[in-house]
Design a protein that fits this description.
The protein contains 18 helices and 19 strands. With 504 residues, it is of the alpha/beta class. It has 2 domains: 237 residues, Alkaline Phosphatase, subunit A (3-Layer(aba) Sandwich); 118 residues. The strands form 4 sheets. Strands 1, 2, 3, 4, 5, 6, 7, 17, 18 and 19 form a 10-stranded mixed β-sheet that branches. Helix 1 packs across helix 2 and helix 13 crosses helix 15. The longest helix is centred in the middle third of the chain and has 26 residues.
């Protein structure tokens, strides 16, 4: 079979590049090894301090999070202290690059790009949230009837769009087997639609490294506090099993498209130990800036605490509940005396928002010099945190978003990200300002979490071979693919990667 595809983009969502390289060198992943030997290996930088939910949108829009609009699934609701919910079909400020390709007359197929919006006018086909990690919506497609055809022919996601559930030994085995089978199912689907070419761009993304990395890192990593040697000996390495299945899948796709196709395999952001201090961040910030408390504020805080402990989550979600309104009043009352507070983010970095005059309902930090001074204060104090279990730093970087990124979406994002050092647990910390603080992050689900590592392997006519001497930004991938197809994106943040598109 030859589908006459010009560019094949394969996404390995949250596959760790260091593991891929190791297992390629050991001969465990022969297909990827050949691609690496005969193609270009490009280290990819991801948005500083950001996680998986910002990396993939930066890949498919070609712009930074401040422009495309997504830093996490819960953006800050403007004019409030509350987290919202990001709707991919409505929330992006910049469109995916395949819409530009479509307008230029290129025929495209996009299957399960991570957190991508559905493009109703795509010139070809698109499938969203069919078999993805942490699906943001129900499975859907363009044309709309396509998803029913896929479900009938290939079935549904055995994880129902969410792999984050508690498991035991048998559950880990079942998960591994489900993911290996899910790889085969998605590959069969991709091969079916590849045969309906020609395609200018065919893109398929596998979520399986993401699910197995979160759930089974402790079985792969003997240094994990939750490592179970007996279960690991009985099971082997679940990550390796899933990666082997992906390697075989890539081999099938390469055989289908033929040697004239340019093949790009994107892996990342990677996976590693899950250590984080997000669970301590709010306490850290309170010690750095103890709010002024009135009797009314304290009473409201007691009510809010009772509300959280006594009212079931399903009832807390009802905005009309009187206790919910009381808890919200307590939250807002407390903000009268706070210069900064934590906001929800994934575990790689703690997210901090300043209480800014004219932006927050009870802002007290004035824009300009005072805002800058508070940011500098937080930068200094966060970097001063020490892990008492080894004497090393707790924070490896403090990212000020308005200097690292640009665009209108910064208004719904944190002001600072405290990037945690993640090579060991963070349970006892101290600094001159906060004193000593201890705790233990309680989780029974995820034993692995994201690293910033990412990589692009590109192979095909005119691309050459060897490792690129300098990394490329993830935002450069979209304009690179567009340039390969003779299309210029209107306003990307990065130019095409020179070694992949020499004439661009």
């Amino acid at each position: 079979m030859n589908s006459s595809t010009k560019v094949l983009l394969i996404g390995l969502d949250s596959a760790e590049p260091e593991l891929l390289q190791r297992w390629c060198e050991e001969g465990t992943l022969p297909v990827l090894r050949r691609l690496r030997e005969h193609g270009r290996v490009v280290p990819i930088t991801t948005p500083r301090g950001m996680g998986n939910g910002a990396v993939w949108p930066s890949l498919f829009t070609g712009v930074n999070p401040g422009r495309h609009g997504r830093y996490f699934r819960n953006p800050i609701v403007p004019g409030s202290y509350e987290p919202g919910h990001f709707d991919p079909d409505r929330g992006f400020l910049t469109r995916p690059f395949w819409e530009d390709l479509s307008e230029a007359g290129r025929r495209v197929a996009v299957i399960d790009m991570v957190v991508a919006p559905l493009s109703p006018t795509v010139n070809g086909i698109q499938v969203a949230d069919w078999t993805t990690h942490d699906a943001v919506g129900p499975p859907r497609s363009t044309p709309s009837k396509l998803i029913a055809e896929i479900a009938q022919r290939f079935g549904s996601d055995p994880l129902n769009g969410n792999g984050d559930v508690p498991r035991d030994g048998d559950g880990y085995r079942e998960l591994r087997d489900q993911l290996v089978e899910r790889v085969r199912t998605k590959t069969a689907c991709a091969l079916h639609y590849l045969a309906q070419g020609p395609w200018d761009l065919f893109s398929v993304t596998y979520a399986d490294p993401h699910d197995i990395g979160h759930q089974c890192w402790h079985l792969h990593d003997p240094t994990s506090p939750r490592h179970d040697p007996m279960l690991a000996r009985a099971m082997g390495d679940p990550l390796r099993d899933v990666y082997v299945a992906l390697d075989a899948a890539i081999g099938q796709l390469l055989e289908a498209v033929g040697p004239e196709t340019r093949v790009l395999v994107f892996s990342g952001p990677g996976m590693g130990p899950p250590y984080s201090a997000n669970y301590l961040l709010e306490t850290i910030l309170r010690r750095l800036d103890a709010p002024r408390r009135t009797l009314q504020t304290r009473a409201l805080e007691i009510a809010r605490g009772a509300y959280r402990h006594l009212v079931p989550a399903r009832l807390r979600e009802r905005p009309t509940a009187p206790l919910a309104a009381l808890a919200q009043r307590a939250h807002h009352a407390e903000m009268h005396g706070r210069r900064f507070f934590s906001v929800v983010n994934q575990q790689n970095a703690g997210a901090i928002r300043l209480n800014v005059v004219g932006r927050e309902p009870h802002g007290i930090v004035r824009p300009g010099a005072e805002f800058d001074a508070v940011c500098e204060e937080l930068d200094t104090e966060l970097r001063a945190l020490v892990n008492l279990d080894d004497g090393g730093p707790v924070v490896t970087d403090v990212v000020r978003l308005d200097r690292a990124f640009h665009g209108p979406a910064l208004a719904t994002m944190p002001d600072l990200l405290a990037v945690w050092r993640r090579d060991r647990p963070i349970e006892r910390i101290a600094s001159p300002r906060i004193g000593e603080l201890s705790g233990r992050r309680l989780t029974d689900i995820r034993t692995g979490d994201h690293t910033p590592n990412a990589e692009l392997v590109a192979c095909g006519p005119g691309l050459g071979s060897g490792r690129c001497p300098a990394p490329a930004a993830v935002e450069a991938i979209a304009p690179t693919i567009a340039a390969m197809l003779g299309v210029s994106l209107p306003d990307p943040d990065e130019a095409p990667i020179p070694l992949l598109v020499p004439s661009a």
